[in-house]
Amino acid sequence: MMASEDSALPEPFTKIKGAERTWDRTREDDGGGKISWVKERNSMCDPHAEGLNGAPLAKLLEGGGNLELSPSPVQGEKHLIMLQTVHLKEGEEDFQGISQLNIQQQSGVHMVVQRGASVLQPLVVVQQGVGAQQNLPTGVAISIQDGVYTFHDMEVMQINVLQEKVQIDRSKDLHVVEGKVQQLPPNEEGREKDIFTVEKAKILSCDAKDDMSVSHCEHKEQEEQASIKNTDTLEAQTNTQHRKKGEKVIFHCDLCAFTSLRMSSLNRHMKTHSDEKPHVCHLCLKAFRTVTLLRNHVNTHTGTRPHKCSDCEMAFVTSGELARHRRYKHTLEKPFKCSMCKYSSVEASKLKRHIRSHTGERPYKCYLCSYASKDTYKLKRHMVTHSGEKPYECYVCQARFTQSGTMKIHILQKHSENVPRYQCPHCNTFIARKSDLGVHLRNLHSYLAVAMKCRYCEALFHERYALIQHKKTHRNEKRFKCDQCSYACKQERHLIVHKRTHTGEKPFPCVCCSKCFRQKQLLTVHFRKHHDSNFKPTVYECPKCGKGYSRWVRYFLLRNLSGEISLVKYYISHFYKEAVYWLN
DNA sequence: AGATACTTCGCCCTCTGCTGGTCTACT
DNA sequence: AAGTAGACCAGCAGAGGGCGAAGTATCT
After folding, report:
1. What do you get for the CA distance between the two ends of chain A, in Å?
2. Beta carbons of A210 and A218 less than 8 angstroms apart
3. What would you report as the CA-atom Rg of chain A, rounded to the nearest whole angstrom?
4. A319 by DSSP, 3-state: which?
5. In whole angstroms, what is the distance from residue A131 CA to residue A134 CA?
6. Which of A45, A118, A175, A254 has its C-alpha lying 20 to 30 A from A145's C-alpha?
7. What's the predicted TM-score (pTM) here?
8. Cβ contact A255 with chain C strand, < 7 A
9. CA angle, corner A149, sides to A147 and A152, nearest 5?
């Protein structure tokens, strides 16, 4: 079994959270050309129903899976199954491992996949949406594109799995039909009569022992039945089935997976396969299939927004937009719940996007580097790094930035008053940016497993900040003590010089006379004074009295009687005179 | 057939946090 | 003067919120 391309995708970027897929760990050749995945819905399923190779489902499910999946159904939840295309090579059509593991993980989807180029393997099952009810009978109805065996470009697809009030016949497999992956309508009582079910309509069944593709099975079944030929052009494109006694007729679109119990619905549906768009916008010449679509479109030109929110000033073109807005802003209802974390969202697309943070799926690839994104916006934003474009300009200093957020921080930090600063909770440090406070906390306040020792004493510290503070206590300490007298000093070199007073050592001899000195600078002064005829001592003249002095001493901060602080330079011999004079 | 409900895709935004280069104070 | 460490700063990606708009299915 080849590893999926998804899993092989390099991850130079942020690590993906979530469980890893492990379905290819074990493999056994079942000798068959198909794989069946069976989903069991908790206690509502027959625990003795047989799964793969006759193994009882309950037995298969005992092992659980690495993923924590699908808790018991909660009212008002939908489910998503993430499927991934897995390409197979000749001789690698070992489906047993896949199926076995996926039964454990997914427990519930019964599928037929032909031995061949690619198979679909469920990645995760996530709850989604509203509509399911407590005590539902189990059943998962899925229709899958016929081309699942060949669409190499589609690495991950999603199929909505709905808890309809049907019971899947587990001796049968799912029906795979042509066309797109079909999303079935949510389970609402009002629609119950229209949904097609596995038991009621055998359209969803196919013998797993048959090596033919499932759609072939269906066609075979159709051949056995006398089909109703409709003279209508549209109807002529559809497969229809005769009504057997007590059985409903399923009208089936030949161009996609659409089915309906009503011919009128099918006829209307067939228009979606037509390019005919007779309703043209007079403002932009864009064409639409229906008057309603055109009207909504024209409203975007005119600004007409008939659907006003009762709780705020917002208004929308359609009621759907208003309903969504109200969920976001007012009711805070989030029906799409992630089964792997606490995330929930207002929209299904947001849940799908969120799930990519669990699966690591990155469908949007940069064609210039190895980066791949989980959504289109991030890829677009990433592409700016290749173009070098800096679209955001600071209106104050005209500095340019790659992202709006970066510019916003810049303006806040550089051009705003009352800039917020973040105080470290462990010390009194204030840091301009929250993210840098995080760096500060990691560097200075994180616990270190290996304690650090003070270089001046035996103290040990597990926190860098504590060590730094401790070291400061040594700063003005005369920690170098003479063992022969009471002398103590701050620097070791001073102690070395001092110790020569005890030993009598004078290591700096004058090269011109026999005199020796304990310190080098004493030798230098001696040499200049007695042996260097070119040496002219610098004379600093006092600006007050004109008297000359050999050196400056230092600058000195003085506070006058008014409290002002001034910098005063003075001569050492003049110190008292100058200071007194200045202060007066 | 029109109205309505619902789905899907896309765009843009904000907030967040990590990273690495630079600046600066301290040793 | 040089080395070091912490703060500053811009770049950049992850995650999620909110809305616009078009498409599709169902209801009336």
Report:
1. 96
2. no
3. 41
4. helix
5. 10
6. A45
7. 0.46
8. no
9. 90
User: Which nucleotides in chain C have some atom under 7 angstroms from a protein Cβ?
Assistant: 5-27
| The predicted structure's pLDDT at residue A9 | 32
Q: What is the pLDDT of residue A28?
A: 30
Q: What is the pLDDT of residue A562?
A: 59
* A185 C-beta less than 7 Å away from strand C: yes
CB A240 within 8 Å of CB A251: yes
Q: What is the pLDDT of residue A403?
A: 86
Residue A573's closest CA among A543, A553, A544, A545?
A553
One-letter amino acid for residue A348 of the chain: A
The segments of chain A whose pLDDT lies below 50 read 1-246, 540, 542, 549-558, 566-584
Token code pair at residue A37: 């995945």
**Going by C-beta distance under 8 Å and a sequence separation of 6 or more, which residues neighbour residue A501?**
A518
Model pLDDT, residue A376: 84
Nearest-angstrom CA–CA distance, A404 and A388: 15
Nucleotide nearest to A291 (CA to C1'): B2
Task: State whether residue A559 is helix, strand or coil.
Answer: strand
CB A190 within 8 A of CB A267: no
Question: Which of A159, A162, A119 lies closest to A137 in space, CA to CA?
Answer: A162
Statement: the CB of A268 is under 7 Å from strand C:
yes
Spatial separation of the C-alpha atoms in residues A176 and A255, rounded to whole Å: 13
